[in-house]
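Table S5 (text form). Sequence records supplied for joint modeling of the four-component complex.
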Amino acid sequence: MKKDTLISAEALDAAPHAGRRFDRVLDAAEELFALHGFDGVTMRQIAKLAQVDVALPNYHFGSKQGLFDAVFHRRAALFNLARSNELDRVTAAAGGAAPTLEDILAAFLMPIAEAQLQSDPGWRNYCRLVAQVNSSPVWVQMMTQHYDDLIRKFVDMVAMALPGTPRSDLFWGYHFLSGALSLSMADTGRIQHLSDGLCRSDDYETLYRNMIQFFAQGFRGMKING
Amino acid sequence: MKKDTLISAEALDAAPHAGRRFDRVLDAAEELFALHGFDGVTMRQIAKLAQVDVALPNYHFGSKQGLFDAVFHRRAALFNLARSNELDRVTAAAGGAAPTLEDILAAFLMPIAEAQLQSDPGWRNYCRLVAQVNSSPVWVQMMTQHYDDLIRKFVDMVAMALPGTPRSDLFWGYHFLSGALSLSMADTGRIQHLSDGLCRSDDYETLYRNMIQFFAQGFRGMKING
DNA sequence: GTCTATACCGTGATAGAC
DNA sequence: GTCTATCACGGTATAGAC
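The corresponding structure-token record, covering 452 residues in total, follows.
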């Protein structure tokens, strides 16, 4: 079996259940929550977009909160797996030595770039959702719930690539990376507008290529600090 | 007259109108919008927190949207002035030469650090609000409305400090900075939790000191790219 | 088991009376 | 400038159709 994408598309978009009411509700909720947040969306809007009855989302997911959780959960597992696998891959590829910062950053970021590059808007919507959750004092806990393990793994690998750098500095570095990544996932189009079209918001390749280089330099700069 | 803060506190927190119903509504709205976003807050909640009648916010601001705009607007002008002044100050201090990247970043960031360090929670709340607006596809336009001029000024100064770097790269660099800044303003406490307390979320001094160094390195790294 | 129609009850924004 | 009445809309429970 050929595997040409980091996130197996079959796992989700071409799933045997696709198109069924249950999944239409999830897709509709994902799209609307991504744009307007939890409170900006009503169950009635979701039901309408999914072309199902108002009561159906509640039947399947118990409550609005339950639906939101299900939406967030659905792709988190796939994201974690893809990114964790990539981190393992570069570790293995480096033999016994520590992988380069660039390789670690690429492993951490490229599954996200790939998700945003999909023609299907589902992953892009999910990314937007993550971005909003990550910036909200009341919703962040969903991030810690689903992504802490992966992030600790990432920080540990950066630590190996930069021996001697204080661990707290590495976490600050991750904080900066997380912010930049979060804003990139939000995909608001602001950078395109701000740069008068010089940077294209849908040019994810350039975005992430620059990001890897930029943050590798940033992390290396912390080593001097002491 | 002694001026010991970048943002004059008198301009707002000790204003002659403080404590009046009109201002109590703005303060209450700021606090609630900052935590829950536009749709996560009801006019009744705002009125209750401000200890005014439900109808008063509408009387003064026309609508919920009008109130939100007023809240966002109120501190934007002060922020812009403080940060723009700082940029001018480092330009002047450098004589004819270009200021260093570190000085430019400090001028851009320190007024925000200072805002978050205020004992009064108003500025911290406002920062959170900005962070959420900045990450939302439907609300970003408020950022461009209020902050584009300042950001272009910042990018122009970075361009002078890094001659030869492609302008698009500088905008990508700003995009990364904006993300990191945005997440810092969101002040969700995640970095503290993630680092097991190694980084304290309220340690704004360390945060911004690291940020200046980290991003100066990042920006310099783009020059190599070509 | 899967889904629809509908009813319930609380709450929202706002207009108009005071 | 303040308060109240109104009416639409919110999430959800339930009864029963397929």
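Note: The two ends of chain B are 48 Å apart (CA to CA).
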